[in-house]
Every structure is written in structure tokens, then in C-alpha cells.
Amino acid sequence: MRASYVSYQLLRSLVLFLESKGLSRTACLTQLGCSEQELHAHNSAFSLNHYQRLMRWAHKQLNCPYIGLSFGAQFDLDRWGVLGHLASVSPDLRRVIDYGRRFHPLVRHTQSLTLHQQPKTLTLDLGPTQDGCYYVIDELFASWLSFARTYMVDAETLAPLQIQLMRAAPQDLKERRIYDNLFRCPLQFEAPSNTLSIPRELINRPLKQPDKTLEQVLLHQAQQQLNSHYSLSDAVKLHINAHLPEIMRIEQLAALFGLPARSLQRQLARQDTSYAKLLDECRQHLALQLFESGYSALEVTNKLGFSEQSALQRAFKRWFYLSPKRFFLHQHTLEINSDGPISRRIKKSAPG
User: Per residue in 258-311, pLDDT tens?
Assistant: First the structure.
């Protein structure tokens, strides 16, 4: 899979936001290490490090540790590119969530995104924070809420049921009040993951300006952009990761590409792979990531869509020849095959 990145639209929006806060545009571009032309070029590629570097610099310049929160709250559709405009003309929040899971790589590829559906609640789980940088999590949750409060019917006072954040609790009371005033819900800091929970009934809440014709046009554009950015196998992995723990049938997956199931299978076979093999690769990669982040075997089982814990144990032994506990306990240097053999030294203790 590709390394973490953000779109040029997102960084362009961030630069405009920082300008509105009094920072020099030239200084922002210097921090990004890019020209004005590159900031507006459709083929420009920016890593997550560009985003983090600019956020950390703005934090220091403005003495504002909640800069990600402020940026997310000042939401604009262009920040999400075609996905933003597609979401705004959708009929309800359910469709918005579906499009977000499907097309979020057009905006960024920085976090895993898992949807947990309980009888009365819906939880969006972004998993562990990468590189200890909390700005991106703050921005994501704040921008999602800002979108919902702006475009959903009667949602101006919408509040989540709970938000969990891995970051440390703010020491400054003013900073804590800013979090409380924006989210308007119980907040848990130093949590094991980054999650936002809402009442499940909200997913049927309509949006203010649905437009079925424009929705279909933008949906076609979004799919074309996704196809142009990724090989078929990479695009399949993105869909698999977006839908876990749900395991899609091959027919469901093929429909997302506008293909019959047999056509999708043939095209994957030409790339010397298959849906089952790609699903297995996604689970293998995520299992390591989740165990290394401190998740228990039961939690990993649930997040990866295994039927029971013993099924995860068998898969892990097939991948790495050891149980998860022994794999991490012995701190072996192992050769792990993904796109090619890479050496990885495990330095974590055994998961609980």
C-alpha cells in the first residue's frame, strides 16, 4: 500500500486558513518546501510529513496547540475535493459515510477507518495515531462535525455520544474548554484509540440540499479519480480496508468498480493475485499494526472480521509461523513479505 499522504486541496486549504490567522503565505510554502504552482498542481504529491511539519510550525508560531481543531472547525467543501461536493448533495448521512469510506483516499491516506455498528450507536474508529501527531485526528473529527452541522437537516446542535482521543489531556483549562465547546460531548483523553460515536438513528437524517442528478455525475468523477490514482489491486485493498470488519462478497466489491464479478476476478488474475489473497494481505498488515499498538487478540479479531479468536490465531501462525504472543515476546528479526521481502525488527512486548 502507498505511504501516508494528503491531497494538494487539503494543504491548499490549510495554507489559506493559516493566512487568515496572520501567518505569511510565503513562510507556509517554505515550510512545505513547495512553490505556488506545486500547491495548485493536480499531480502534486504531499506526504503526511508535509502536513505535520506545517501544523507543528503553526502551533509554535501562533502558540496554539489546538490548531488542528480550529482548522477542522472552519470547514470548506473544496478541502475534500470531489468527495466534499459529492457528500454535500447526498440524500442522508448514511450515504455520506459510505462515500467517505469509499473515496477518502482522494483526500488523504493517513489513518485506518473502521466502522463499528451497534444496535443504538455507530462508532467511527481511526485507530492509533501515526507518529504521535494528534493534529490530523483533531482536524478530522472537527471537520466531520462541522460538515454534519452545516449540511444535515436540523443538526446545528448535533453532538456525538462520546469522543475518545489518544492524545494527552490538555493541561490548560482554556484549551480543554475549546474541545468541550466544539464537541459538546464526553471526552476521553489518553484512550486506546481515536473514536467518535453517534446515535445510530442519525444515519437516516436527511441532508439539506440533495441532488440525485449531480450526485451521479460527481460519483462518476470520484470513481474515475480513484481508478486513475491506483492499480486495481491497490484499489481493491482500499475498499477492503474501508469496509472491515465487514467482509464483502466478491459481487459487492465488483459492483463498486462497475464490473461483473468474473471480470474483476480475471483482471486480478492478470496481476497474479485474487480477492482472497488481497483480503489476506490486508488482514496481515493490519494485524501487525493493531497488535503493535496494544490491542488485545479479541479486539484484533473483531476489527479484522474473523469469526472467532482461534481463526485469527491460525491466520497469524500461517503468516508468521508463531502465535502473536510468541512473535512479540521473542523480539525476532523477521522477514515479512508484502510487496517484496522487507526486514522488520519487532521491539514490542507481548500483547495482552
Answer: 788 998 999 899 888 999 999 999 999 888 878 877 788 998 998 899 999 999
Contact 47, 3 (CB under 8 A): yes
CATH number, domain with residue 317: 1.10.10.60
Report the distance separating Cα 219 and Cα 225, nearest Å: 10
Tally the residues of the chain: 352
Residue whose cell numbers read 443538526: 155
The per-residue pLDDT for 230 is: 76
Joined grid coordinates for residue 336: 515479512
Strands (E), 93-164: 108-109, 114-117, 121-125, 162-164
The x, y and z cell numbers of residue 57, run together, are: 510550525
Is the same domain home to 74 and 198? Answer: yes
Number of domains in the chain: 2
Residue-range definition of the domain harbouring residue 315? 230-352
Sequential DSSP letters for 306-345:
-SSHHHHHHHHHHHHSS-HHHHHHTT-EEEEESSSEEEEE
Cross-strand partners of 92: 206
Backbone angles phi, psi at 230, to 5 degrees: -135, 150
Is 177 within 8 Å of 51 (Cβ atoms)? Answer: no
**Neighbouring residues of 115: CB distance < 8 A, sequence distance ≥ 6:** 97, 101, 122, 123, 124, 125, 243, 246
Q: Are residues 185 and 254 in the same domain?
A: no
Q: pLDDT of 118-133, one tens digit each?
A: 889 999 888 776 555 7
* Residue 219 lies inside a defined structural domain of this protein: no
Residue 27: other Cβ atoms inside 10 A:
15
Relative to beta strand 195-199, strand 162-164 is antiparallel
